[in-house]
Amino acid sequence: MRLAPALIAALFVTPVCAKLPPPTDGDKAKAAETAAKTAWSDKIAQHKLCLAMGRTAEAYRNSTKAAGKPVPAPLPTPPCVDPGHYVSLPDKPLITVITVVFNGASTVEDTIQSVINQTYSNIEYIVVDGGSSDGTIEILKRYEHAIDYWVSETDGGIYDAMNKGITLASGIYVGMLNADDLFAGQEVMQDYADNFCATNVDAIFSGLNIVSQVNMNKILRKYRVNRLGAWLLRIGVMPAHPTFYCKKSCLECAGPYNTGYRIAADFEMLVRLCVKQKISWKFLDKVSVVMRSGGISNSGYLARLKLNGEIIRACRENGMYTNALLLTLKLPIRLFELIR
Length: 340
What we know:
- With 340 residues, this protein is of the alpha/beta class.
- Helices cover 42% and strands 16% of the residues.
- The chain has 12 helices and 9 strands.
- The chain is globular.
- The termini are far apart.
C-alpha cells in the first residue's frame, strides 16, 4: 500500500514548533488583575457563607431552646473572612462607607438600604453604633448579611465613633454617611469611583440636599459648596461632610477627629486636610446625599453659637486667623442656599 507523501512526512518528520513570545508586562498585569478579582470574589463569597451558616445555626438553637428541648452544642463553622482583606483594584478601588448611629431606629434602615443598593460593587460597609437601646441593634442584625462589620458599644460621641470606623476601614477611600443621611441615588459610589480613577485626587465631594424630616420630598436647603479653600474655611464655609470621601492615607496623616470638639470636629478635620496636608480635590456638580434636617450643629441658637466658637478655635489652632465678624460673611451663601 502506498502512503501519500504528506502522510509519510507527518509520521517521520519532526515538526518545527513555533516559539511563543514571552509574556509582556501588559499580559502579566492582566493576569494579576484577573487573579485578584477571583480572589476578591472568593473571599466575599466565603464571608457571606460564613455569616449565613452562623445565623442558621443560631436560629436553630434558639428555636430548640424555645421549644424546651436540649440545645445542641454549636457546630464548628469555617472562619469568617476579615472584611479588611477585601481587594482594591486599579479600575475598581475599594471605598469604605461608615455609618455612625446612636438610637437611630427611625432612620438607619433607610441609610443601610441606600448603601447596599448601590450599583458599585466594591464597597466595604461599616456601622459603628454607640450602644443603642431603641431597636437599632435589631435592625443591624437584620442586615448583617450585607454589612461587612458592625459594632455596638459605648463610645465618646459621634467623632469618637468616626475614628473607630476609620481604624476599621480597609478602603483606599473613606467617607461618612450618618444615620440621618442617605445616598441620593444608586449610582453615587460608581460616580465617585469613576472620578477617583480618572483624576487620582485625594478627595471628592459633591452637592447635598437638606430635606424635611416629615416630608423628604420637601427640600429646605441646597448645600452646594464647590471648593475646599482656606478663604472659605476662614469664614466658616466647608464642603458637605457627608459627601466628602478622602484617601485613607491622607486621613491617617492628618490624624483622628479631635474629640475635644463637640460640634465642629468635621470642620476642624477639613481645615487640617486643606491647610496642613494640602490635599488635592474635585467637586462633583451633582447631588449625592440627602440629609434630614436637624442634627447636632443645627439644633437651635445656642448650638449655632457653640458651632461658630468651635470654628474660630479650629482655624486658630491650625494657624489660620478668623473671628466672629469674618464668620458673618457666610450669611449670603447660606441665604442663597435657601432661596435657589
